Amino acid sequence: MAATTPVRQVRTERQRSVFVLPLVITAFLAVMLAWMGLGQFLNAITLGAVYALIALGYTMVYGIIELINFAHGDVFMVSTFVTMFVTSTILGQKDAIYGLPQLLLSLIIVFVLTVGIMAVIGAAIERVAYRPLRRAPKLAPLITAIGVSFILQNIIQFFVGPYTYNVPQIFPRDWVIMIGETRLLLLNVFVVAVAITLIVALQLFTSRTRIGKAMRTTAMDRDASSLMGVNIDRTIMITFLIGSGLAGAAGMVHGLYYGNTNFQIGFQSGLKAFTAAVMGGIGNTAGAALGGFIIAFVEVGAVVLGFSRWGGAVVFALLVIFLVFRPTGLLGSHTGDRA
To answer: Is 69 left (phi over 0), alpha (psi -120 to 50) or beta?
Structure first.
């Protein structure tokens, strides 16, 4: 009986969260909408979609091998340049595309190529930089991740220079829906729709597919999973592949929405996405997505209050607060240290 009590407590906490969390999120969104106004509310949702996609890669990798992959932010940075290259060089597009069939085809091509290229890059990074250190002390892969981050930055700086480049905004920014006096860009709807679709698809993949279940069991106990026939190396490689692909999707929507990139954007975006993963519960994909949206609302809220320069400081102050008072995050659970 004593052994089953903690299990029952965990189940009770999860059942409560199923009912309480949606109510809290709905109330939070209602308050933010009333305070910010529809325009800034939509900006926060759009920014949160980008952070959520990046944070998913952080939390997936940590959940599997307990590695804080600091290179992930720069994988996102590289994807913005891949988006720029595919759009401007392969497709030859410089301006908005107003023909709907051509626009849809172009978006599909950019999405598939960017996500595919970044997935391959992510898998290659895992194979070359991290797999040889699988049994090394935890500090070794952490330092390697920082090294990979600098390598990616310097590669981009070497080939394109330290300049800010314009990413062709092929999605027309004058396609709007008027809601009262507020202009709702269809581009905002597209960015949020892509993010939510990918988040839901990831949840279904990890819970319904054989590979997804292998990823979950590997996260719980790598050695036991290996004894049960799970190919650990392949599972970890697929995790990096998917996480980097999601960073590629984030880079695509970032380029389409903001229209510019440079070799330094990965550092700040990566740190904020890492904060989102910690805030939501590192290793929990739903929590990482939730954390991404919360951080976006904090940043946009600082802008609304006239403290735009302090937005980053508030975000990282929240990181410290969560690490001290709620290290498991909003949706995380207490687990023992894995060997």
So the answer is: beta
